[in-house]
Each structure stands twice: as structure tokens, then as C-alpha cells.
Amino acid sequence: MSNIRITKQFSFETGHALYGYDGKCRNVHGHSYKLSVTVIGKPITDSDNVKFGMVIDFGDLKKIVKSEIVDQFDHATVFNKNTPHIELAQELKSRGHHVILVGYQPTSENMVIDFAEKIQKHLPSHIQLHSLKLQETETSFAEWYASDNA
């Protein structure tokens, strides 16, 4: 049976700031992110299985990504926990805002690495994460490929 790649796309709104950056992105701002998640595996060949012919049910993939990424990052503000933005983060939290503190500079590159790690932990053993594409703007995106990280 052939390996097949399937992709599901997600959207979420997230704010962030890049501490120490020398451009506009040092200011708190937001993006309408688009995340494409591609997994690879063999379609189920057991005709008695309700998921016969599927690599993974799109709904099952959606549950994983929604729980691990979308529900966490949508309408949140992400700051590096090791920067002076911590004071701003604490102020926002005290006012009821959803703030995520991460151990990295919240660039698209670092976020896509974080997302890959989170998604991989929840995939069934017979399904591999093939790639992620995190689109920050209409013309800018970061990609993660399993083959580049083997």
C-alpha cells in the first residue's frame, strides 16, 4: 500500500512581540496565522474498520491540532518568558488577557518548531508528521519538514 500525505489547514489570531529586534516587530502586534499540517501514512485496508481507506480521519487530526495549537494560541499574546516583556505579560494577565510565555523568541520559525513537537506527541504511532507550514502574512511563512529534522 502506498504512503499518502494528507493536509488540514487551520487559522488563528495571535499577538506577539520580538524583544530586542531592530524593526517594527519589536512592538506588540498580531497576525492572522494559517497553519497547514501534513501527515503521512498508509490508508487503512481493513474493510470492517469504519475508517477504511483513510490515513487518519480529518476530524481526529483536527482534534489534535485544535487542542494543542489553535485553542491555546488563538487570541493569545505570546512573549518570550526571558525578556523584559514579562512585566507587560503580567499586567495583561492581571487584566484578564490570555498570555502565553514561551522559552523562545516567538518568531514563526520557533513557533513552527514548537507546534511540530506538540502535534507529534499526539499522533497515532502509524502516522508521521510530514510537514507544517505556518503562514504569518500573505507573503511570509515558515516551514518545518520531518525529513530536515531526522
UniProtKB/TrEMBL annotation:
<comment type="pathway">
    <text>Purine metabolism; 7-cyano-7-deazaguanine biosynthesis.</text>
</comment>
<feature type="binding site">
    <location>
        <position position="31"/>
    </location>
    <ligand>
        <name>Zn(2+)</name>
    </ligand>
</feature>
<keyword id="KW-0862">Zinc</keyword>
<feature type="binding site">
    <location>
        <position position="29"/>
    </location>
    <ligand>
        <name>Zn(2+)</name>
    </ligand>
</feature>
<dbReference type="InterPro" id="IPR007115">
    <property type="entry name" value="6-PTP_synth/QueD"/>
</dbReference>
<dbReference type="GO" id="GO:0070497">
    <property type="term" value="F:6-carboxytetrahydropterin synthase activity"/>
</dbReference>
<keyword id="KW-0479">Metal-binding</keyword>
<feature type="active site" description="Proton acceptor">
    <location>
        <position position="25"/>
    </location>
</feature>
<feature type="active site" description="Charge relay system">
    <location>
        <position position="136"/>
    </location>
</feature>
<feature type="binding site">
    <location>
        <position position="16"/>
    </location>
    <ligand>
        <name>Zn(2+)</name>
    </ligand>
</feature>
<dbReference type="GO" id="GO:0046872">
    <property type="term" value="F:metal ion binding"/>
</dbReference>
<dbReference type="InterPro" id="IPR038418">
    <property type="entry name" value="6-PTP_synth/QueD_sf"/>
</dbReference>
<keyword id="KW-0456">Lyase</keyword>
<comment type="similarity">
    <text>Belongs to the PTPS family. QueD subfamily.</text>
</comment>
<protein>
    <recommendedName>
        <fullName>6-carboxy-5,6,7,8-tetrahydropterin synthase</fullName>
        <ecNumber>4.1.2.50</ecNumber>
    </recommendedName>
</protein>
<feature type="active site" description="Charge relay system">
    <location>
        <position position="75"/>
    </location>
</feature>
<dbReference type="Pfam" id="PF01242">
    <property type="entry name" value="PTPS"/>
</dbReference>
